[in-house]
Amino acid sequence: MDQSNYINDLVEQFKTLPGGMLPLLHAIKHKVGHIPESAIDPIAKGLNLSRAEVHGVISFYHDFNTQPKGRNIVQICRAEACQSMGSRHIETHAKQSLGIDYGEVTNDGLLTLEPVYCLGNCACSPSVRINDDIHARVDSERFDQLIVDLKKQDSRLLEGDL
Amino acid sequence: MRVQLFVPQDTTALALGADAVAMAIAKGITSRGLDIDVVRNGSRGMFWLEPLVELKTAAGRVAFGSVNVTDVESVLDAVERCVAGEEANCPLFLGASESIDYLAKQQRLTFKRSGIGDPLCLKNYQKLHGFKGLEKALTMSGQQIVDEVKTSGLRGRGGAAFPAGIKWQTVLNAPAEQKYIVCNADEGDSGTFADRLLMESDPYQLIEGMVIAGLAVGANQGYIYLRSEYPVAHNIMNQAIDNATKAGFLGKNIGDSGSDFFLEVRLGAGAYICGEETSLLESLEGKRGMVRAKPPLPAIEGLFGMPTVVNNVLTLGAVASILGEGATKYKDFGMGRSRGTLAVQLAGNIKRGGLIELAFGVTLRQIVDDFGAGTFSGRPIKAIQMGGPLGAFLPESQWDTPLDYEAFAAIKAMIGHGGIVVFDDTADMAAQARFAMEFCVVESCGKCTPCRIGSTRGVEVIDRIVSNQERDNNLILLHELCDTMELGSLCAMGGMTPFPVRSALTYFEEDFGLSSRGDH
After folding, report:
1. Which of A63, B5, B120, B387 lies at a 20 to 30 A Cα distance from A151?
2. Most A-contacting residue of B19, B46, B190 (CB-CB within 10 A), to test interface
3. Closest CA of chain A from B476, distance in Å
């Protein structure tokens, strides 16, 4: 099914749900990885809103983005508890070793690096989230290992082994 | 009885490798031909011991921690010895779980079931006195339930500490065809994880509290607004709602009472401000999470313009035990106007971090020394930030303040949601003050100018102070900016960002390059 079809299907599915906008955007993001610009029109029509209102909601939340992201999302916690355990070093190390800044995608499309403000794992900081897995007590070495593991997993996925 | 091994599955245990440990244990059990069940439980909240593996035999429950995959074989050797009634003889053996001093010294009411069994097992929940509060509530009128909550003295645990009973009374009194119960599970403060732990380890307690709230005020629809940073809690809460609905604790005609209560989890989208209740309501309605002016109070005009109870996870969780065990029992804990227990979350640079539920009145120093055992790094503590990113940085002279809402307000600090973040002496408090402003830049909803623009200017002014550009003038400017933010912002985001900034400036001026007073 092409993209516009399933976006229309999702809009149909959520348009009568009270406050259905966020669940709809999450569903689109889950499917596509981001909220394509082309989704704004059908969302606006379905939810009886203006395009500006839809754009306003998308741009308000850190989780939503109209630009494509990497195949994986790597988030480094920047909040105070993680800072007290040296997360600033991990941030610097990650940006250097991956060669990208926050919000950017690696050249191979492997990952997007993002900041996050608290993963609720503050007793065993610093924390890093890779997709839906959270990792505790991460230092630079452990971060490198996590990226090596991610690359392996990613290439297996690309080859269709998983 | 069957011998059981418990391996936690909460976020922190998983983040420390609990899945791999559970798999290795299952494999070991098979290869050794042992007759032992592996149960994935929630966490006891002693995160410094995670993954904490517990063994339950007829003789009771004993613990091993922290268990890594490489320890599994030696732990299984010890398990076999324990089952045979011999000494464990294992360096990771911690003795009887409930006698571990960290746990034994606590007063657990809200977290009494946390980590004991499979969080999704309804039978287990009921065996541990779950749904006792709901059973009782079903025999009471709405007013009687509200009165019980009032008697308990329970105040909102999200941070604002507003008396829960008064909020409920307002919603009960508001005439409307539709009312809502909204659970604020957007636990965004750094250093806090109590909501997450409750949802991951004892989700039915939250469900029970929400149904009771619905019965009390006459609401038949509830929403849990959960932050997207909590994928494990999301999954567990959704399964718990499914199970509770199938078992008749949610949905139509609960317990043949004629009352309905429907519950849904709604995922946030990474905006800290949505932890503020009016911004949360906007977000639930599908809009930008912009703060609303109050009045009207959400209790009168809340979600979709209808009377709405908005309470934190821990407030609603406490309601289940208040109804179950009586308001007086709850009220007997605590001091002054802070009644009951506080779920302290000890985090940051600390040796023994975790969840510590205690009656109000304990001091910060007791928490950090007796429970925390000092910093993780082994260096001296420099500052403690209590109450999340909007809380003040407290120097040692303030660590004897008792944990009490009023006592903290008196020193321009706050208990907030109960998070404590410890910093050792390598922390740069000027950098932390700058971060407080930077965080406000990122997370401000943008409604109030002092918060939206003031935070950006705040970062710049702090940079100028630290680099000694017109330091005296910029110090005055920073204080004026803080005044403007405090007085001119609708909510705590802009109104309290100055707290960490000013406390850093007051107590740690040397970090701003102000060590010699001759400078200015």
Report:
1. A63
2. B190
3. 26
Helix (H, G, I), strand (E, B) or coil at B34: coil
H or E, element range at A8: helix A3-14
**A21 to each of B22, B42, B112, B221, B252, how far by Cα in Å?**
39, 32, 37, 18, 26
Q: Enter the DSSP assignment of B380.
A: P
The tally of domains found in chain B comes to 4
pTM, full prediction? 0.97
Q: How confident is the model over B319-367, as pLDDT tens digits?
A: 999 999 999 999 999 999 999 999 999 999 999 999 999 999 999 999 9
Q: Residues of B with CB below 8 A from A122's CB?
A: 190-193, 345, 347-348, 353, 419, 421
Residue B268: its chain A contacts at CB < 8 A?
Answer: 22, 61, 63
Last residue of a domain, one of B399, B424, B449: B424
CA distance B129 to A92: 49
The domain made up of A72-159 has a fold known as Glutaredoxin (3.40.30)
Q: From the centroid of its chain, how far is CA A134?
A: 13
Q: Give Cα separations from B156 to B100, B112, B416 (angstroms).
A: 30, 19, 10
ipTM rounded to 2 decimals:
0.96
Is the domain of B151 the same as that of B250? yes
Tell me, yes or no, whether B418 and B437 share the same domain: no
